[in-house]
Amino acid sequence: MSSLQTDTPKSKTIRSKKPIVEKPEPECCTICMNNYTPIIRKKCVCKYCKADSCSKCIERYLLEKHQDAHCLHCHVNYNDATLREICTKTYVQHVYFKHRQEVLINRERANLPGLQDVAIDERLKRENETKINAIKLEIVPLETKRDIIMTDYNKLYTEYYTKLGAKQDIGDIRKRLDKLLAQSDAIRHSIATKRDDINRIRWPAAYGLPTNGGTHAKPEEEKKKFIRRCTRENCQGFLSTAWKCGICEYYSCSKCFITKTKKQDDPHECKKEDVETAEMIKKDCKPCPNCGEFIQKSSGCSQMWCISCQTPWDWTTGKVVTGGVIHNPHYYEWMKRNGGAAPRNPADIPCGGYPNAWELRRMPKLMPNKAATPFFEFHRICQELQDISQRTYRSHIDNTTTNTINVKFLLGDFDEKHWGQLLGKNERKRKRDTEVQEIFAAFRMVAVELINRVQNYHSEDGKIRSFTDLPVKEAVKFMEELNVEICTLIAMINDALRTASISYCYSVPYINLDGEYYSMKTKNFADEVKKKRDTKEDDDTDSITSMPGYGAQPKENAVIIPPTAPASASSASASPASASPASALASPASALAAVENVQKTTEAVTLKRRRPVVAPSEEDKLAEELGEDAELQAAIAASLGK
């Protein structure tokens, strides 16, 4: 048998005529090497060093650092606006704010020993105020009683001298007058004594009494030395060399560190385990060679910095460091807080300062007031803005508010959690005031330069060396050009202050240019932006609700028939509008189907109205197939009428 050979068709290779386009590889973070995403790992580029990284790495980096928020590449500080652009709102307001509270608590805890004397004075002041209020409460009933006595005395006095009573009663009236007068004098003397006690409490030095707990204040009093923190519960004070706390006034045992009583000689028995714990603590701590305060080493090199006496010393040798570079982080913190990097004084005007008003009055003769008034108004508003920057927006930049919070914490007005919250809020206010002060400083530098153009005017050829000698036409032209720059500067300063107001949601001053004279006003632009946003949302809602048929509900017990099918529908299906109600609703199932059909149609049209202008979706296509809104409403109205 011959075998049959079949030819199999050869496989053909199909090649595409279109060129193959390689997709670019997605960008990834240079730190975690994960691809960038629109929200969670969005790409963040530094404005200064142009380095990029994902927001997740930046958030993780900020939680590991105790410094202020800064770029992880070039270490330039971030303001709150930049931080909100990089991180999410939840991270900034909750996670990072809680981290900053812990950082501020650890930072301010090192400054508590130096504020103990201030806390003691504040406690004595409160005690004195309590005593004064108690004395005032004692004076009130005495004054009321004396008023009643004097009222009776005046009635008897009138009756005695007008002889309204009988002759035999005149002697009794006189005796009663003398008795009432004696009672009034006794009460008046008692009131005067109590008021004198109030004055003695308020101004003890005027009566030759000791102050500050029994010792007169010395002009150069030595700084007190503190050994360690008080171990008494809920006390934030520190122990002196006598092992006495200045806040709660309790003594502690020098062997076991356990709190005793307010009397140093009271008997106390140390426990063995407490003594062992105290000895272990003494091994981990060493006293400062200058002031004797015990300092514990947590980490790092052997160079230490005493925050009480500001002395660098070596942990190994126990001697004061006299040479070399001080690189302890507490030293840099102290320099930052006490002059090393202090903010510039707002009263320090650069470039010689603003000239006096009488100097600017030397204008060319026949100079029209219309050309000179804006310049004088600008000089006046600069002085007013300078006064506002010094008087209003300086309270949170220095350490006054922070020290007040720390003193209240030492006195036990609130717990540590609330202390951290207050420190965090105060830091936000400090950043806010610092940013506003930077805006004021930039305005002052440019304003001084503009004003000095008039003050130090001289022509290019050197013939005119004073603005007073300038011809009137040239002077008017010069002032008009200068006024244009002034208006531009004011617009820029107002825009910067408006941005700061929206960013921090608080009121800022701005220069009002309405009218002939400039004026300073204060406004919270964040409220204005919020009001505009709410008004826009209300307008959008009104436009939706004002559409014909929006929110229409069928009447009770009404029969609803679905709308007529469009002309493009199948000709075999019968038109519901042409059918009778009886045939359309022959059964409950058909009636329910008709109601559901109308509800779906209404929901589809409503979705179409509320949806922004985007690519058509399935709901939009369904609404287009069902016809126009007018046809839908006509069908529903017809069904309701039937």
UniProtKB/TrEMBL annotation:
One Gene Ontology MF term: zinc ion binding
Ranges where the RING-type domain occurs: 25-341
Annotated spans, Disordered: 531-556, 603-626
Keyword set, alphabetical order: Metal-binding, Repeat, Transferase, Ubl conjugation pathway, Zinc, Zinc-finger
Name of the featured protein: RING-type domain-containing protein
Species of the source: viral metagenome
